[in-house]
Structures are given as C-alpha cells and as structure tokens.
Amino acid sequence: MKSQEENGLIRINNVSHTFNTSSGKIRVLDKLTMSVPKNGFSAIVGPSGCGKSTVTRLVAGLLQADEGSVWLQDQKVTSPRPVVGMAFQNPVLLEWRSILKNVMLPLEIVPNNLNMFEREARARNLLELVGLNGFEEKRPSELSGGMRQRASLCRALVHRPEVLILDEPFAALDAFTREDLWQTMHRLRSEEPFTGLLITHDLREAIFLADEIFVLSGRPATLQHTEVLAKRGQKNLDDLYTPEASQTLNTLREQIKIARQNEGRRI
C-alpha cells in the first residue's frame, strides 16, 4: 500500500534549498518532506523567514530545489505549470483593465478551448460566487481591499487549476474582512474543487481553512509537526471557539515557540 506521501497530488520529497545572497549562502530548507492529497487543503505555518514562501515557489515551478524533488499529478515540477493558480497578499490587479477583464486575464495566457463568450461567462460566474456581481466594469482603484482580494481569488481560479496556492492573501486586511473572506474560501472550495496550499502567520486562519497544518522548524526548515484537524471541509466561525479548536491553537503556538527557540541550531 502506498504511503500518504506517495499518494499526494502535491509531493515534496526530501527537498533542500539554499539562496546565495550578498552576505553569503543562506540555507532555508533542509530535507523537507510533505504531501497534500487531491482536493485536500493544507496550511504551512512557522517562524518568519523560515522558508514558507520558498515552498510555494518550488511547488509552482518558479524555483528549482537544490536537492530533492517536487511532484504535481505524478509529474516532476521543473517549470511553471498551468494547473497551478496563485494568490498573494498584494492582488496586483491591472488598473487599466476592468475587474472582469482582470479576472479573464489567465484565460488569455493559459491554453484553453473557451471562446470569448465562454471566457466572459466563466469570469462573471466566479465574480457572482464571491459577491462581486455588479462590479464587473469597475477599475481596481474603485474597490476596497477586500473586494480586490476577492477578484484576485477569481483570477487565480478562472482557468480551473488543480492546485491553488495562497501566500498570505488576507494578511493586509482588517479582521472582519479577513473572516468574511475565510468563509468565501469555503464557498469557493465547495463550488470550484481544488487542492489548496496556504501560507499564513495567522494560526486561527490555518485552523479555519485547512484540513491539515504543517509546522516548519526554524531555518533551515524541515517538517517539525503535523496537525490533522478534527473537523475538515466546510466550517463556520463558531468552530474557532470550541474546546478542540482552543487545544489545537495552543498546540500550534507551542510548536512555533519550539521552532523559534531551535532556529539555527541544526545548521
């Protein structure tokens, strides 16, 4: 029987990576191994600067590991793949394009069989799903930060990627907007199935959105702890205030504390 690592849609196998900087070499990942199953949603947390974003860039094919390998759909990642969608803290919407045209942009780049009418219908359906119907012809500067991030999520999903990578997309938003977008993410996951990988510093966000949470050690990072959530899939905000969620939060905080204390000791 195959192990979970062998069955994962995303597989990171014994990956190490070093950056060359003006002050010397910095080893950020050290023999990191983890996997995310098809249609699963995993979050990665850890101390600042431990290499979380490096992991997403390796999965997206924007970086190549010095050692080890990264696999998507049983294919080794050696370059950017159209099956991956990405959303970042900064939505980076193009001001000279309407929100609708911004969302449609990946369909102009990624090969697909949709005609112009079908592309527009696809974009409009996603905007309606996240509550932006009626704002299709607005420019990005005319929308709030939360609305721009909704549009960014639509853009990341419009070409129906197998994998959605989220690199702290809600970090710059106020608490109420952030929680609203957490619920939007669950709706998107229900209507637009994908395999998710979230980078976040917000432990409550990880608990609310993920099925499984990976805690990375301090740099150079390896997998320190895996927390499997008792409740997976669709959640509501009340689930964050249960005894189980409080215990999970305490466990994660303790693991982050350990990671900070041990940072650099394995070099």
Report the order of strands and helices: HEEEHEEEHHHEHEHEEH
Determine the number of helices (DSSP H or I, runs of at least 4 residues): 8
For the record, give the distance between the C-alpha atoms at the N and C termini, rounded to a whole number. Answer: 35 Å
Question: Given the C-alpha coordinates, what overall shape results?
Answer: globular
Tell me what portion of residues adopts beta-strand conformation: 15-25%
Write the layout of secondary structure elements.
Blueprint: H1 4-7, E1 10-21, E2 24-36, E3 41-45, H2 52-59, E4 67-72, E5 75-76, E6 84-88, H3 99-109, H4 116-129, H5 145-157, E7 163-167, H6 175-191, E8 195-199, H7 203-209, E9 212-216, E10 223-228, H8 243-262
Parallel strand pairs: 3-8, 3-9, 6-7, 7-8
Antiparallel strand pairs: 1-2, 1-4, 4-5, 9-10
Outline the structure in words.
The chain is α/β, with parallel strands linked by helices and 267 residues long. Helix 6 (175-191) links the parallel strand 7 and strand 8. The relative contact order is 0.17. It has a six-stranded mixed β-sheet with strand order 6-7-8-3-9-10, sandwiched between helices. Strands 2-1-4-5 form a four-stranded antiparallel β-sheet. It is 35% helix and 24% strand. It is built from eight helices and ten strands. It has two domains: 1-39 and 51-81 and 218-224 and 252-267, P-loop containing nucleotide triphosphate hydrolases (Rossmann fold); 89-209, Rossmann fold. Helix 3 (99-109) packs across helix 4 and helix 3 (99-109) runs parallel beside helix 5. The two termini are 35 Å apart. The radius of gyration is 19 Å and the shape is globular.
